[in-house]
Design a protein that fits this description.
Two copies of one chain form a homodimer. Chain A is an alpha/beta fold. Chain A contains eleven helices and eleven strands. Chain A folds into two domains: 142 residues, Rossmann fold (3-Layer(aba) Sandwich); 137 residues, 3-Layer(aba) Sandwich (Isopropylmalate Dehydrogenase), CATH 3.40.718. Chain A is elongated. The N and C termini of chain A lie close together (11 Å).
Chain lengths: 302, 302
Amino acid sequence: MLRIQSFDDLRKCCEKMIVKSRLAVAAADDEHTLEAVLKAQKLEIVTPILVGDSARIKTALANLGFSLNDFVVYHTSDNIEAARVAVSLVRDGKADFLMKGSCPTRDLLRAVVDNEIGLSDKRLMSHCTILEIPGLGRLIGVSDGGMVPYPDLMEKKAIIENAAAVFHTFGNDNPKVGVLTSIEVVNPKMPETVEAAKLAEMNAQGEIKGCIVAGPISYDVAMDPETARYKGYDGPVQGDADILITHDIHAGNILVKALYCSANSKLAGFIVGAKAPIVVSSRGASAEDKFNSILASAASLG
Amino acid sequence: MLRIQSFDDLRKCCEKMIVKSRLAVAAADDEHTLEAVLKAQKLEIVTPILVGDSARIKTALANLGFSLNDFVVYHTSDNIEAARVAVSLVRDGKADFLMKGSCPTRDLLRAVVDNEIGLSDKRLMSHCTILEIPGLGRLIGVSDGGMVPYPDLMEKKAIIENAAAVFHTFGNDNPKVGVLTSIEVVNPKMPETVEAAKLAEMNAQGEIKGCIVAGPISYDVAMDPETARYKGYDGPVQGDADILITHDIHAGNILVKALYCSANSKLAGFIVGAKAPIVVSSRGASAEDKFNSILASAASLG
């Protein structure tokens, strides 16, 4: 498999897949979501299964020029039921992955972590954003800006492993991971730098596999080869990071949104670490963001 | 005074100043630094005072086509002495502001905080970055990504006041400040959101003056009017923030460097809160960054 360098590469790869993934959409009456799902269906990437209030789904579909009769629809009376039905479909092998429509993320996640019908897989669930930054020529993963507020060392290890697994499905067997801080040296007064160094050490000792971890490292050294050279940074990541790990949810969120709003990046995001990928794009996300999220999570099904 | 919207505006303003600012450069044997200082001198923005090893300064000047004889030079035998002499020049009224050359930032700051010769002003010193993001049409301040590691509530208040004071000198009497987190609602489990709300409240009650403070607020709501509208965010900052405050030094540093490396922004940075602005551009900074830092700090002298 060739290494995927853009969302366009990802689309081409997904189009070549022989078996279409079945995508269960919880509370599918959101037009941006439906627009993205219908595009993925048209390109033969997914078979949608729409869950939610059928009258509202009908209206949303009609606004996009489609009829309810063309789809598999599970009618539910409220968001909580929609979330539970969509999750159950994945759990029972009737769908391959999951996407949030108009329901709040917390409703969907409650069903996901439910002991009986849920999709927990004993691993930590984390949010992984995939960004296509103009001119860069590779996709960048950022985690975690949406799920784990203040990860400790072992949670950061799991976040790295989750993100690395996504990049493996993108044809990158050994992605380079930068554990970001403000500096490149360990400062005992800054626990984030100590943990970053520890993660790099765990990687060097084979405790974190399937990737190359460097840290502590600042954004410019992780992303700009010239800065890495100029600063004489001695590490396995020299401006060529694939995955950026932040110390907390706020930093991850700020980074993703700065790259999205101010660097014209394209974006995908989904939750990894459950039995199936879960697309939980925010309310503000465009149909294109949601389509890219479907692509990235469909590709990550392997 | 017109509001300054770009580094070009800032240059034009500085060129119009009748009295040139005197800039003391500590360890002035760095070529990028000298290049920036010489450009500012040519534009009649500053009168440089070069402090450091005169032989090394002579060599660096010669590489740029200049002679030592054309400058006021204070010879010193090492970085620590260079820092102390440069700081003393400002303290004694012989220079107006200060710039780091080839010496480590910590050497310069040790002299700055020295009780006898230093420039401490009883206020918190913080680092303020000024960014010109392509297409945005206004300058953005980010603080603190370089000086205060983990500011508490009152330190964040001081950081806001320091950054607002810079924007006042840029002709913006009431800059809009976004205290960034990952969400717009207060979550008691996330102290950063509680503090952001408290800062907005202190501003509303007149305890933080000369600016408009909103928080907690995420980057996209602070910077993108469309997202603010779509999310129905109810606050005084609606995608039109001038100043962004981060909860810790790592987040600030990541944000600044993402905007610089991945969004083609132009950048200036200096320390505010001492008796004079202090330019401490990093080793990796270009001559252009350093020139912009001279512009911004010269303008902030008022």
